[in-house]
Write a structure and sequence with these properties.
By secondary structure, the protein is mainly α. The protein has two domains: 46 residues; 44 residues. It contains five helices and no strands. α1 packs across α2 and α4 runs antiparallel to α5. It starts with 22 loop residues before the first helix and ends with a helix.
Length: 120
């Protein structure tokens, strides 16, 4: 029998070359992405896909957003979105007792996060 060949070694991802961007353009791009509704972690991913690396600028994205008043706590946003999805599902499916329990669990998780982050 002939040997099996693996193409895993042949397939390689192309590296995105990093772009040189000034500080003002970097902050402007962060604010544009924040306006579109992305959190700081998703903004970092989007910038890396564009070839802009935040470490080259020496500033954290969350600190820039806090200074401009656009910061949204990613944990709170993710948990509240999850709660909304579960509530919508439970409104359609009242017989789903597991969804009811999940709704209660996620709601308490959100309440704890709000207490920790000191958000009303």
């Amino acid at each position: 029998m002939p040997k099996k060949t693996t193409k895993k070694a042949e397939v390689k991802k192309e590296k995105v070359l990093s772009k040189k961007v000034s500080e003002a353009e970097f902050e402007k791009r962060i604010l544009e992405l924040a306006e579109s509704g992305l959190t700081s972690e998703k903004i970092g991913e989007a910038l890396r896909k564009e070839g802009i690396h935040p470490k080259e600028h020496g500033k954290k994205i969350s600190i820039i957003l806090k200074a401009k008043g656009k910061y949204i706590n990613p944990d709170l946003k993710n948990v509240s979105e999850k709660l909304e999805k579960i509530k919508a599902h439970y409104e359609k499916n009242h017989q789903d007792k597991r969804a009811m329990r999940e709704k209660d669990r996620v709601f308490s998780q959100l309440r704890i996060l709000k207490k920790y982050a000191k958000v009303q």
